[in-house]
């Protein structure tokens, strides 16, 4: 495979506040201010002449190595046992093939492993320790995903009585205890006070935002209109071991269709995956909406039921028109490199929530 030579990451970053915009192909769109990842994917596509899936992997892998915002790659978002696990997904919008891994343990290169699921198996998703075994079979190295920073984060959480956490309807009270827990009996005559006061749609305790949003999500479209999309993440901080969020779930974290376009999401994955917002946005574009309006419709569907949730979505048509929508934040940044700018300079655009 042709390898991309080392290219400077000193991209021009332009901050704008706008809605939908007309780009040009080729195009790379990425959630958040992940400019190095965006530039790497764009230069892989153009200078390196990689196919879109390879360019997508190159871009996501940058964030895995750089540990972007502490929410991608090794050494971030430890679960309740202090372990970091990884999720990733790649979707080819021309063949509709998907490769994904979830709760991947002890392997640093989740997006690359997802590529092997895509290209070397007839499956869509591999999970947990068995996904690790698959990765080792494909030649990946087994290594710890913990770092001093992730160990320190986990220790501080434990010393704070395991707050916040993702438990409910258990005893002892998860609002003041680390457990172990057991279910509250359905016939209990003394329900816990926190269970009585709990609002099931309230997500405000989880502080999702720039440093706890759990994903790099990326769309890549080449000059021929081949649309792909994917994600990579280390999941929600202090999650219950075994938890998988929206990122590796088709239609939730990402969805691509070369006949229409693509959408990618980020934020409170436990809620967002219940609505498949990326699929909703692509289908809204198929029905005639522009990318910004399609994103707003998908995000609005979630907000109707979970008004305090935090999340964002980036939506792109097959022709390179793009937009974004968000909820629960003051603003949501996303990164664009496209054919309208020389050398693939990366623009950071911001949409108000």
Short structural summary:
The chain is of the alpha+beta class and 353 residues long.
Parts with pLDDT < 50 across at least 5 consecutive residues: 1-18
Number of helices: 9
Global structural class: alpha+beta
- Content of β-strand: 15-25%
Please characterize this protein's 3D structure:
The chain contains 9 helices and 16 strands. It has 353 residues and is α+β, with helices and mostly antiparallel strands. Strand 4 and strand 5 form a beta hairpin. The N terminus is likely disordered. The protein has a 9-stranded mixed β-sheet. A 5-stranded antiparallel β-sheet has the order 2-14-13-12-11, with helices on one face. Strands 7-8 form a two-stranded antiparallel sheet. The termini are far apart. Helix 2 packs antiparallel against helix 3 and helix 8 crosses helix 9. The longest helix has 15 residues. The radius of gyration is 20 Å and the shape is globular.
Architecture blueprint of SSEs:
Layout: E1 15-17, E2 21-22, E3 27-31, H1 35-46, H2 52-66, E4 86-92, E5 98-104, H3 110-120, E6 125-127, H4 128-137, H5 148-159, E7 170-171, E8 182-183, H6 193-197, E9 216-221, E10 227-233, E11 254-257, E12 261-267, H7 269-272, H8 277-286, H9 291-305, E13 311-317, E14 321-327, E15 331-338, E16 347-352
Parallel strand pairs: 1-16, 5-6
Antiparallel strand pairs: 2-14, 3-9, 3-15, 4-5, 4-10, 7-8, 9-10, 11-12, 12-13, 13-14, 15-16
Helix pairs in contact: 1-2, 2-3, 8-9
